[in-house]
């Protein structure tokens, strides 16, 4: 190679593309810098991203939620759940059922949630408002609700272990 020759390197990594055109030694340094600086940053960012593991969620919901031709059912007696736990479970069942193709939508109407809980509209509205404020649930313009990914992760970490303990006792 002559002194004026250049090397072009094109890197694609997790949606990021970087191209270097430089003399071989400089291109090598730029490539090393890319791997030293950017790859750890991507790995850190990936560790900070909420992810729902559907296989783990299926294991966590075993004995708590079941699906049939009629849709989702809670296997936990109503009297063992708080209103918020019951709402989270119904929203989680809709989310999981939709991911598996067992239910049409991950969104549930306030009226359906009220019927499932057997509580007054005021209580259901108040509890749903608390879940939305805590970012565990989201509301649509037509007053339907879904669990957020944050809500799924927090339900897995906090609510499901409590519910399982209640069932065991």
TL;DR?
The chain is an alpha+beta fold and 169 residues long.
Please give the CATH class of the largest domain.
Answer: Mainly Alpha
Strand residue percentage: 15-25%
Inertia-based shape: elongated
State the CATH architecture of the largest domain.
Answer: Orthogonal Bundle
Broad structural category = alpha+beta
Largest sheet: 3 strands, antiparallel
Q: What is the count of DSSP helices, taking H or I runs of 4+ residues?
A: 6
Rg over alpha carbons: 24 Å
Assembly state (oligomeric): single chain
What does this structure look like?
The protein is of the alpha+beta class and 169 residues long. The chain has two domains: 7-47; 54-168, Arc Repressor Mutant, subunit A (Orthogonal Bundle). Helix content is 54%, strand content 18%. It has six helices and seven strands; from the N terminus they run ββααββαβααββα. A hairpin with a 2-residue loop joins strand 1 (7-13) and strand 2. The longest helix is centred in the N-terminal third of the chain and has 24 residues, at 24-47.
Short descriptors:
single chain; 6 helices; two-stranded antiparallel sheet; about 170 residues; three-stranded antiparallel sheet; Arc Repressor Mutant, subunit A; alpha+beta
